[in-house]
Amino acid sequence: MSTLKPTNELGIATLSLGNWREHRLEPRLQAAARAGFQWIDLFDECWSAYLAEHGLSGEGAAAWEATEAKLAVARKLAALVRSLGMRIACTQPLRTIEGIRDAAERRATLDGVAARFPFMRAFDTDLVFMCSTIRRDAGVAPADLKAVARDLAELGDMAAAYARADGGRMLRIGYEGLSWATRNNTWASSWEAVRYAHRPNVGLVVDAFNVLAVEFADPYNPAGHGRIFPTLHESVEVLAGSLAALVAVVPGDKIFFFQCGDAERMDPATFRPPRDPDVPPLLPWSRSHRLYPLEQARGGYMPVELVAAAVVAAGYKGPLSLEVFSSSLNQPGAQVAGDHARRGIDSLRALIDVVQTLPPFWKGPAELQQAVDCVVRRLETTTARL
Description:
- By secondary structure, the protein is of the alpha/beta class.
- Helices cover about 45% and strands about 10% of the residues.
- It has helices spanning about 25-35, 45-55, 70-85, 105-115, 115-125, 145-165, 185-195, 210-215, 230-250, 285-290, 305-315, 335-355, 365-385, and strands at about 10-15, 40-45, 85-95, 125-130, 170-175, 200-205, 255-260, 260-265, 290, 320.
């Protein structure tokens, strides 16, 4: 029996309460507060739509033009969140930032990140994070660890300089491995870039879906897993070994944020890879078929508890936050936000319960095998119902 007892507060991404096209931000925030969430992860598109509600241009970089009018709206949003008993944990996602070869484009891109810093003060948050790049053109060098680490280090220095200048708390830069990224698509490769950056305010963002999409799942395999190994036991065992290594090598205070989500097990007879070679095979699954953790009745089948347990065992103290993309979030109707908020909070509480029953697989081979057996039994039960 594990002695791990997570005390982390609970959070949810604004996008995981309904999309910005069909659902205004304020009702979604109210639904999150009623459900019991304490933290909000502010998605860029949701912020842009909120600006538009206030008659201000918010498309792309325009969302981060630090005019007094836009900063006033940011402060208004922060006050609304606080009035609901919550706080804004972070803003995201920054995309296609690192590894840019052209000096002028690189400078403009990094300066675009710095343009967010006044808004972070207005939102009363200290964290912004970026995804590893999916660009494959000759204009980027995503496989160049030095280039990626150099960019992360410079962003960390820019954030620290801003904090010193205004006397506020340190601003932090998080780096997340995206499962369909060009290079840094695992927690280990993302951590390598963070470690080489060697800045106290640059850290790792762990996303359970993205970890599992690379190290466990295969939506185009009838078994759902088997990305590398054919048996469920072997797939879980290798995953658990990887996550035990995370506990061993990543300090908890260098994990800046944790997002979690499950996903539907797909039927490859009807769910086919995209025909467009420029569309990553995992993208359709990620964008339309994620679920909240442990939603077995809806087709969820991934061992999210292993990732959550590893992050908490490493010493992470921040929110356990949900990031889910799903076609159900695109439906119209006032009930969408409330329904998803209730589903989300129930799933996080269930995840915490399961984590507490999981043997501490990071402590040694015997515990790892016990945990693997425990997870396999749960997944086999889930599979039998699907």
